[in-house]
Amino acid sequence: EKAGFDHFMLKEIYEQPKAYRDTMLGRIADDGKSVHLKELSMTDDYIRSIRKIHIVACGTAYHAGLVGKSVIETLARIPVENDVASEYRYRSPIITPDTLVIVVSQSGETADTLAALREAQKNGARVLAITNVVGSSVAREANDVITTWAGPEIAVASTKAYTSQLIAFYLLGLHLARVAGTQEQAAVEEIIAGLHALPEQVESILEQALLLKQVAESMAHHKSLFFIGRGVDYAVAQEGSLKLKEISYIHSEAYAAGELKHGTLALIEDGVPVIALVTQELLYEKTLSNIKEVKARGAHVLAVANSGFEDEVAKSVDEVFSIPKTLPILSPALAVVPLQLLSYYASLALGHDVDKPRNLAKSVTVE
Ligand code: M6R
Asked: Where do the SIS domain residues begin and end (predicted)?
């Protein structure tokens, strides 16, 4: 059932191109000009009445929501707040009837996420669920559902469910933007073309997996490491850090690259591995200067860079892994893949149980 792979996690990483295609299927018009989420029951008038959005989830699904915020704010110009589900209902969030609450859950059974959904509905908000399990509790109770068609995810560490959640957010962002009239047609078509290109681009990253195996093996004997990035790269850094901790048990932290010098830079000393995400054209110079700050303190830097800037980045770092060129907003769907592979190979090198890390359950159905 692992289809020739040593672990479910690796199989699921390799299933991502299919998961992307399946999640897009039937939702993008054949002429590549628009996105229609026909499964949504919310009317266009309702969409135009939304004043703010709360995205609520746990763990990796929360990290997908961080990218979702950027996608929705960029495309549909609706303000978005992100919340960890275990915090949401205890902070008395301001939920009004013009708030759309989006819950994100692979399993659809996470106790805190389900409780957040109920809290939102109790306060008169509509809830849209992004989930991978048809008929799950979250899917049954939400007012609307976007199903991610990643197929069953067995490994505790979420991979293809996360990236399919990103695809769902891109589609949702384009759907909302169409109704709200916030994007030029040419921009929409460019994003749709970019979405269609992603599966093959992921395949080309997977072909280079063995490069990451080597890096992971040299990383595996370090006690602690850092992930840095700006904008959506920071969101991806947070996901990369969680994945690494979860299955390799190596301590790591993710930082917004510009925030390091406000304290954390003190931890950078000779040989400390830093993984820097450099995919955003507008932020590229800024991130590069943060990379120079850590290099000057002796860090060993691996950059994950968009092809196009990789030559420039290479001058300032120890290693570069380059990802295919895409639009800035779509880059998380590519940039996370090398980070998934790094975690996998680090866990493997340390001899851990990759698919069933200690202390963790696939689905957290208690508070
Ligand atoms: O099923 P859910 O998406 O609601 O699960 C949320 C988290 O428990 C989950 O993403 C967790 O963080 C993963 N094991 C991370 O790989």
From this structure: 42-182, 215-357
